Amino acid sequence: MISIDGDRLLADLRKLSEFGRVENGVHRLSLTDEDVAARKWLVERMTEAGLEARIDGLGSVYGTTPGAKRTVLIGSHTDTVPKGGWLDGAMGVMYGLEVARAFIESRDTADTGVDVISFVDEEGHFHGTTGSLAFCGEFDLETVKAFTNTDGVSYAQALERVGFGGTPLALLDRGRHIAFMEAHIEQGPVLEQARKRIGIVTGIAGMRRTAVTFGGQADHAGTIPMAMRRDAAAAMINFLHDVRGRFEAMAADNTVWNFGYYRIEPGAPNQVAAKAEVTVEFRDLDKDLLDRMADAVEAAAADAAAATNGKVSLETERVVVIHPADMVPEIGRDIEAASRALDVEPLWMQSGAAHDAMHLARRMPTAMLFVPSKGGRSHDPAEDTSEADIVLGAQVLAGTVERLLARDAGSS
Q1: Strand 206-215 with 275-284, pairing
Q2: In a shared domain, residues 305 and 395
Q3: CA-to-CA distance for 401 and 228, rounded, in angstroms?
Q4: Which residues 6+ apart lie within 8 Å of 395 measured at CB?
Q5: Backbone angles phi, psi at 404, to 5 degrees
Q6: Residue 1 lies in a domain
Q7: Which domain holds residue 362?
Q8: How many other C-beta atoms can be found within 10 angstroms of the C-beta atom of residue 315?
Q9: What is d(CA 397, CA 178) in angstroms, rounded to the nearest whole number?
Q10: Is the residue at 56 inside a domain?
Q11: What does the CA dihedral 171, 177, 106, 356 come to, rounded to 10 degrees?
Q12: CB contact at 8 A, 389 and 372
C-alpha cells in the first residue's frame, strides 16, 4: 500500500515555490538562476527519497527507482510562465516525488518501482515542451541547442552558462516504463463549477496557430480619402469579423479560439496602417475540425485582402500545428476506481491546455488527472488549489499507480 504523507508533500511544494518567488507568484523561467537552483534542489530531494537522480543534458531532472525493471513514470514540469503561479506543473512533479518516496518506503519487491521526471522548458522560454519532446526522441541535442529565447540567448549558450551540457539525455525506455502519469491543476473552472474534486482527462486538445499579415501603405490619416487608402488595419478588422463568424458556424461544444496578438505599424492615431499582424489560435480534440478551421482562417484572410481590390497584400503562415492526444481509457478507469475508493466521484473531461503528456501519449500508455483550480485561475499569481484537494489528488494518483503495477505484474 502506497501511503501518501500529505504534510510532507505540501512542505515540498511550498519549498519549491520559494525558488523565483515574486510576491504571491513565481517567476522561474527555464535555465535561469532560479530554475537551475530549483532543479538542483529537486535532485537532492529525489536522492534523499531513495531515487537515483540526475540532471540530463538539456536540464530535465530524472529520478529512477534503483534496481527496478518495470516502473510507472510520473512527471510534469517545474518551470513557470513569467510571473506565474506556484502549482502549474510543479504539483505534478511533487506528486511524483511523494508517490515514489512512499513506494520505496513500503517496497516489498525489487522488480517494480516509480520513476519521476521534471521536463525542462515546458512553458516555452526557448521552444515549448522541449524536455518531453527530447525524452520521446523527437528532438536531438543539436536541434535544441539552436533554439533561442526572447533575449536572443541560444539554448547552447544557456546550457554552457549553467553547466548542464555534456550530460546524456534522459530517454523513454519502453521496456522499463509501463505507463506515464501526469497530474495537474485544471487551469480552468470546470471542476469547481461541477463541484468535483478529481478530473480524469479523456484527451488533450490539439492546437493550431496561424499568423496573418496584411500589407498596406502608411499615409496621413487626415489627407488621404478613404477610397484611396491602402489600410492594412482595416483589412485586418474585416478579417477578424469574418473569421469569428466562420468559427461560430463550425465549432463543436468544446472548441475555443483566441485573437491574442496584434501588431499595427506605424501604430499612430494619425497614420494609416502600413502593416497589420494578428495571430489566430484555436483548439479542439477533433483533428479534422482543426484542419477545417485552419482552412477557414486562410479563406477569410484571402477574402479580406481581395475586398481591397489589390490595395492590401496578404501573407499567412501556419506557425503551430499540434495534434490532439488521446489518453488511455483503461488507466482512466484506474483513476476512477482509486477516486471511488476514497469516496470521491470524479469527472471525465478534456484538457484545453497543452501538457507534456500529449507527447508521451504517442509513445506509451498515458493518462492525466486534474484537481480543481480556485476560480479557474492559472498562469497568474492568483493560481491556487486547496490543500485538501492537493493531498487528495496525490492519494488518487498513488492508488492508480498501485493498480497499474499490480496489473503489469499479473500479465507478466
Answers
A1: antiparallel
A2: no
A3: 68
A4: 4, 6, 338, 342
A5: -65, -45
A6: no
A7: 6-205+324-411
A8: 12
A9: 15
A10: yes
A11: 60
A12: yes
Number of domains in the chain: 2
250 lies in a domain? Answer: yes
Position of cell 508533500? 9
Would you say 381 and 20 are in contact if contact means Cβ atoms under 8 Å apart? no
The Cα–Cα gap between 295 and 323 comes to 16
Using a 10 angstrom Cβ sphere, with 0-12 exposed, 13-18 middle and 19 or more buried, the burial of residue 78 is: buried
* Residue type, position 83, single letter: K
CATH of the domain at 336: 3.40.630.10
> Beta strand 256-265 with 275-284: parallel, antiparallel or unpaired?
antiparallel
3-state DSSP assignment of residue 275:
strand
Q: What does the alpha-carbon distance between residue 400 and residue 88 come to, in Å, rounded to a whole number?
A: 21
> What does the block give as the cell for 187?
487551469
Residue with cell 518531453: 132
Check whether residue 85 and residue 217 sit in a common domain: no
Q: What are phi and psi of 411, to 5 degrees?
A: -95, -10
Is 27 among the domain residues?
yes
Over the chain (412 residues), what is each successive 10-residue block's mean pLDDT?
95 98 95 98 98 97 96 98 96 98 87 96 95 95 94 96 91 97 97 98 97 98 97 98 98 96 97 98 97 98 98 96 96 98 98 96 97 97 98 98 93 72
Nearest Cα neighbor of 132 from 378, 379, 349, 366 is 366
Q: Are residues 307 and 344 in the same domain?
A: no
Residues in the chain: 412
Which grid coordinates belong to 254?
Answer: 468544446
User: Does pTM surpass 0.85?
Assistant: yes
What is the per-residue pLDDT for 1? 78
* CATH number of the domain within which 312 lies: 3.30.70.360
DSSP class per residue in 215-248 = E----BTTTS-GGG---HHHHHHHHHHHHHHHHH
Are residue 61 and residue 128 in the same domain, yes or no?
yes
Distance, first Cα to last Cα, the chain: 20
Single-letter amino acid code for the residue at 360: L
Question: How many Å is the Cα radius of gyration of the chain?
Answer: 24
One domain, residues 170 and 210: no
> Which of 294, 322, 350 is the endpoint of a domain?
322
Pair 238, 335 in one domain: no
- Residue 124 vs residues 31, 251, 362: alpha-carbon distances, Å: 11, 28, 20
The angle subtended at Cα 74 by Cα 159 and Cα 350, nearest 5°, is 105
